[in-house]
Design brief:
The protein is built from 10 helices and 9 strands. It has 260 residues and is an alpha/beta fold. The chain folds into 2 domains: 168 residues, Rossmann fold (3-Layer(aba) Sandwich), CATH 3.40.50.1220; 83 residues, SIR2/SIRT2 'Small Domain'. The strands form 2 sheets. It has a 6-stranded parallel β-sheet, with helices on both faces. The chain has a 3-stranded antiparallel β-sheet with strand order 5-4-6, with no helix packed on it. A hairpin with a 5-residue loop joins strand 4 and strand 5. It is elongated, with a radius of gyration of 19 Å. The two termini are 30 Å apart. The structure holds adenosine-5-diphosphoribose (APR).
């Protein structure tokens, strides 16, 4: 990534932003990789570990809830230890930089809640959240579960098995959040695509929606993806390195723009 490319990118974003502009950020597991959470694909990915992959299947939860929770509990313990990365913080700074004039929407495939923990307010969780739970029998929401669970699986007062509000393999993204995400991609003036291999639908089609509507699309990923050739800027870089640099350049340019 050259300095001039970063400068060009920041200028292109600043030029795109006007009174009614909207910035959308599509994120994936790569954004949380630097917190210590594993990605799904690539080296060290969860999909390489079959026993962990099982924790993401609805079928196993149905057939063997205790076994499912024994595996999922390991991921919960990991989640309890992680904190937002510099990339998450940069996206929170970006939202603060754009407020109140412009909207920033984060569309995430991640279930770790780290965007909200970093301070972003408008977060669409396409695959739900591993920090929210509900009863599989009566549907009652369980906003909190103790870190150490005495009984697995945890049960609701009605006796039903409690599960996290995540979209498991074999399940679909809830229609309402998908419609919001699709509309945000259609309206986007600028879309940042950070830390996703773009292998899973429907999230993978959002950059094409933005491109079709003439948005400025920028990718940050150490590896190439199906978007890399179509994005206006595609940086082979780590999110926690590049995003803070990009937001700092934008801060200066937007200050100049507002002052002029
Ligand atoms: N900064 C930016 N990108 C990174 C970093 C980093 N530090 N580290 C890894 N990446 C990139 C990888 O190159 C890869 O392209 O992040 C991407 C992670 O890809 P996946 O593991 O496939 O994760 P994701 O795209 O979020 O998967 C989407 O698939 O399995 C389902 O539901 C699961 O939400 C997940 C969905």
């Amino acid at each position: 990534m050259s300095e001039s490319q970063l400068e060009l990118c920041a200028r292109a974003i600043a030029e795109r932003l006007g009174p009614e502009s909207a910035v959308v950020v599509l994120t994936g597991a790569g954004l949380s990789a630097e917190t210590g959470l594993p990605t799904f694909r690539g080296a060290g990915g969860l999909l390489n570990a079959p026993e962990l992959l099982e924790a993401f299947t609805a079928d196993l939860l149905q057939r063997a809830p205790r076994l499912w929770w024994e595996v999922f509990q390991r991921l919960r313990e990991l989640l309890s230890e992680v904190r937002p990365s510099p990339a998450h913080i940069a996206l929170s700074d970006l939202e603060a930089l754009l407020r109140p004039h412009l909207r920033l929407v984060i569309i995430t495939q991640n279930v770790d809640g780290l965007h909200q923990a970093a301070g972003n307010r408008r977060v669409l969780e396409l695959h739900g959240s591993a920090r929210r739970y509900y009863c599989t029998c009566c549907g009652r929401a369980h906003s909190f579960l103790p870190e150490h669970l005495v009984e697995l699986p945890p049960r609701c007062a009605c006796g039903g098995v409690i599960r996290p509000a995540v979209v498991l393999f074999g399940e679909v993204t809830p229609e309402e959040v998908w419609q919001e995400a699709y509309a945000a991609a259609q309206r986007a003036s600028v879309m940042l695509v950070v830390g996703t291999s773009l292998q899973v639908e429907p999230a993978a089609s959002l950059p094409a929606v933005a491109l079709y509507n003439r948005a400025l699309v920028i990718e940050i990923n150490p590896e190439t993806t199906p978007l890399s050739g179509a994005a206006r800027f595609s940086f082979r870089a780590f999110a926690s390195h590049l995003l803070p640099l990009l937001v700092e350049r934008l801060r200066g340019l937007l200050r100049q723009k507002m002052a002029s």
